[in-house]
From TrEMBL:
<comment type="similarity">
    <text>Belongs to the peptidase S33 family. ABHD4/ABHD5 subfamily.</text>
</comment>
<dbReference type="GO" id="GO:0055088">
    <property type="term" value="P:lipid homeostasis"/>
</dbReference>
<dbReference type="GO" id="GO:0005739">
    <property type="term" value="C:mitochondrion"/>
</dbReference>
<dbReference type="InterPro" id="IPR029058">
    <property type="entry name" value="AB_hydrolase_fold"/>
</dbReference>
<feature type="domain" description="AB hydrolase-1">
    <location>
        <begin position="79"/>
        <end position="337"/>
    </location>
</feature>
<dbReference type="GO" id="GO:0003841">
    <property type="term" value="F:1-acylglycerol-3-phosphate O-acyltransferase activity"/>
</dbReference>
<dbReference type="GO" id="GO:0005811">
    <property type="term" value="C:lipid droplet"/>
</dbReference>
<feature type="region of interest" description="Disordered">
    <location>
        <begin position="396"/>
        <end position="418"/>
    </location>
</feature>
<keyword id="KW-0444">Lipid biosynthesis</keyword>
<keyword id="KW-0443">Lipid metabolism</keyword>
<dbReference type="GO" id="GO:0052689">
    <property type="term" value="F:carboxylic ester hydrolase activity"/>
</dbReference>
<keyword id="KW-0221">Differentiation</keyword>
<dbReference type="InterPro" id="IPR000073">
    <property type="entry name" value="AB_hydrolase_1"/>
</dbReference>
<dbReference type="Pfam" id="PF00561">
    <property type="entry name" value="Abhydrolase_1"/>
</dbReference>
<keyword id="KW-0551">Lipid droplet</keyword>
<dbReference type="GO" id="GO:0030154">
    <property type="term" value="P:cell differentiation"/>
</dbReference>
<comment type="function">
    <text>Coenzyme A-dependent lysophosphatidic acid acyltransferase that catalyzes the transfer of an acyl group on a lysophosphatidic acid. Functions preferentially with 1-oleoyl-lysophosphatidic acid followed by 1-palmitoyl-lysophosphatidic acid, 1-stearoyl-lysophosphatidic acid and 1-arachidonoyl-lysophosphatidic acid as lipid acceptor. Functions preferentially with arachidonoyl-CoA followed by oleoyl-CoA as acyl group donors. Functions in phosphatidic acid biosynthesis. May regulate the cellular storage of triacylglycerol through activation of the phospholipase PNPLA2.</text>
</comment>
């Protein structure tokens, strides 16, 4: 029997969901098959691999395994590590892997507690749980012997990528944050300020008291149908690659999330309402070394607040920070505008390989002498931030794919900033 199947059988046997199998029609074997259906059309993927981790602090299991997709690992160029978002798995990078692996080694891991990776019990304290996630990523790096890599995280994966870069800056050649979760403070007037989609509001309500996706497991055999009807938008993103996307994507997501909710429980301990973190990342990036370059990629239609990206760009005057907005894309920016997204990431990778940085749009930051002497007013500070935001938006939105509604949103948010 193949090692990956043995690992999954062991994980499944250790799962409390084993006793619920007749109620929840899922297993690690079914997840494996669902993943296979999504990835079978890719041309660059090598064999997936379980990466054995050493003991993680405060975690009951002595060792854990992280499921890892690999492509073009023989390339001498700087590797790229992809971290998926909450409730997802590495197979959802299927629109990106071939294009990105054409130029460098690409690794896509199922974050510990999600997908096909082990599902140990995390600490209930937010700080401890986050440290465990970060320790698992570093343990994964050590096990593979990678010295330095481009780190790209989407949503919750972006939050973890930023946290990892703060602790291990020498390992990160470029930090790419795709519509990252958990950066801004949770505002008091959430409903008035944000037009959150209905599914996000529902998850937010449930998540105050339970794990966000608990209803999926409580629904038992109805779970797959509920997911398929609740998120038809997810299947449309992948229809170009998968002729059976309307069945394959919901099936994969269901089996990712109907297992033991290990990572989900840890995410619940980290969050303050579904859309915000207890310890927002924006306030913590001051601890990130100035030498680490950052690119933030947002979808123009996403529910994620992109203002923190512009604030980061303004506040890190001595660092490279680029903010990209992909027109017409939502939260899953990597899939909604896959070609444009892949082009951006490949451009970053090319510069990393050559030891350079991509060009930034022209924007006049305040001078270092003014900053050091405190010789600037509050109005100057606000104007500088607004100018940086305006110049970046104008320089990065694709003119060929313009949309009047999104322009109105940008104008409205710029007015709010001023």
């Amino acid at each position: 029997m193949p090692d990956d199947v043995i690992m999954e059988v062991q994980n499944h046997q250790a799962s409390w969901m084993s006793n619920w199998f007749k109620w929840c029609p899922t297993s690690m074997e079914l997840l494996r098959e669902a993943e296979k259906r999504i990835l079978e059309n890719l041309t660059t993927l090598g064999a997936g691999k379980y990466v054995e981790l050493s003991c993680i602090p405060d975690m009951e299991k002595e060792s854990s395994q992280v499921w890892t997709l690999r492509a073009n690992t023989g390339s001498p160029n700087t590797p790229l590590l992809l971290l998926h978002g909450f409730g997802s798995g590495s197979a959802l990078w299927c629109l990106n892997i071939d294009a990105l692996a054409a130029h460098r080694p690409v690794y896509a891991m199922d974050i510990l507690g999600f997908g096909r990776s082990s599902r140990p019990k995390f600490h209930s304290d937010a700080i401890h749980a986050e440290k465990q996630f970060i320790s698992s990523i570093e343990g994964w790096r050590e096990a593979l012997g990678l010295e330095k890599f481009i780190l790209l995280g989407h949503s919750f994966g972006g939050f973890l990528a930023a946290s990892y870069a703060i602790k291990y800056p020498d390992r990160v050649a470029h930090l790419v944050l795709a519509d990252p979760w958990g950066f801004p403070e949770r505002p008091l007037d959430v409903d008035e300020r944000y037009n959150l989609p209905l599914w996000a509001k529902a998850l937010g309500t449930v998540a105050q008291y339970f794990n966000p996706l608990s209803i999926l497991r409580l629904a038992g055999p109805l779970g797959p149908g509920i997911l398929q009807k609740a998120r038809p938008d997810m299947t449309k993103k992948f229809a170009g690659l998968l002729p059976n996307a309307d069945e394959a994507i919901p099936s994969y997501l269901y089996h990712c999330n109907a297992q033991t909710p290990s990572g989900e429980s840890a995410f619940h301990s980290l969050m303050s309402g579904f859309g915000w973190a207890k310890f927002p990342m924006f306030h913590r990036l001051d601890a990130l070394q100035q030498e680490v370059p950052i690119t933030l990629i947002y979808g123009s239609r996403s529910w994620v607040d992109r203002d923190p990206g512009f604030q980061i760009k303004y506040s890190r005057q001595n660092s490279y920070v680029d903010v990209q907005i992909l027109q017409g894309a939502g939260h899953h920016v990597y899939a909604d505008r896959a070609d444009r997204f892949n082009t951006l990431v490949n451009k970053i990778g090319k510069h990393v390989d050559s030891g350079t940085l991509p060009d930034l749009p022209s924007a006049e930051p305040y001078s270092s002498s003014a900053r050091d002497t405190g010789a600037f007013s509050v109005n100057d500070t606000l104007n500088k931030f607004i100018n940086v935001r305006h110049d970046t938006v104008q320089g990065r939105i694709d003119a060929d794919d313009s949309d009047d509604d999104d322009d109105d949103v940008l104008k409205e948010k710029s007015n709010q900033s001023s």
